[in-house]
Design a protein that fits this description.
Blueprint (H helix, E strand, L loop, with lengths): L2 H24 L1 H10 L8 H20 L4 H24 L21 H17 L12 H36 L1
Helix pairs in contact: 1-2, 1-3, 1-5, 1-6, 3-4, 4-5
């Protein structure tokens, strides 16, 4: 893959991980309640799990941005996404859709869980795979126009993420209104 696309992927993932961690820290009690809503962990481990989850998410963002730790950041981001997606899948398989996903916008009410969130997380996992050092194998020299392409691609990826996230949330809330 072209190194510009790899750099754009890791910048996008670093921004999403960093902003996700900041939102969870800002609304930590809501995030802890959302983790409890999944009903997968005993009550006594909710807080330690929540702290470790947010710490892993927060740590992955700067690790992705340093060349020496890029692969570790990508692995940590993959781990966070795998844990979050596993919780969503287990609840969907149990038929529990009316659970706050705790994945974005904790200050607002959530539309619940859906397979669309699983697909979204799978795409983010693909970004994590595309972000590691193993993905940068091109010997191509970067030129000044690559900087423009990098910023444009990063902003486009972030815009697509937030647009897709908003569509998923609106779809879930619309379904909830129809069923009530």
């Amino acid at each position: 893959m072209d190194p510009v696309l790899t750099y754009a992927s890791l910048a996008c993932l670093a921004v999403l991980m960093g902003l996700g961690a900041l939102d969870k820290l800002r609304h930590f009690s809501l995030f802890e309640a959302a983790v409890g809503g999944y009903r997968l962990l005993p009550e006594m481990v909710l807080r330690p799990f929540s702290v470790l989850f947010v710490a892993a998410e927060a740590l992955s963002a700067p690790l992705l941005l340093w060349p020496a730790s890029r692969s570790l950041g990508a692995i940590l981001a993959l781990f966070v996404l795998l844990v979050a997606t596993s919780g969503i899948v287990m609840n969907l398989l149990r038929g529990r859709r009316d659970v706050d996903c705790g994945c974005s916008g904790l200050g607002e009410s959530s539309g619940g869980l859906s397979w669309w969130l699983v697909a979204r997380n799978a795409l983010l996992a693909a970004l994590a795979v595309a972000s590691g050092d193993w993905a940068i194998s091109s010997a191509r020299e970067l030129v000044w126009v690559d900087g423009l392409t990098f910023f444009g691609a990063t902003l486009a990826l972030l815009g697509l993420y937030y647009a897709a996230n908003q569509l998923i949330e609106s779809h879930l809330k619309f379904q909830k209104m129809q069923n009530s």
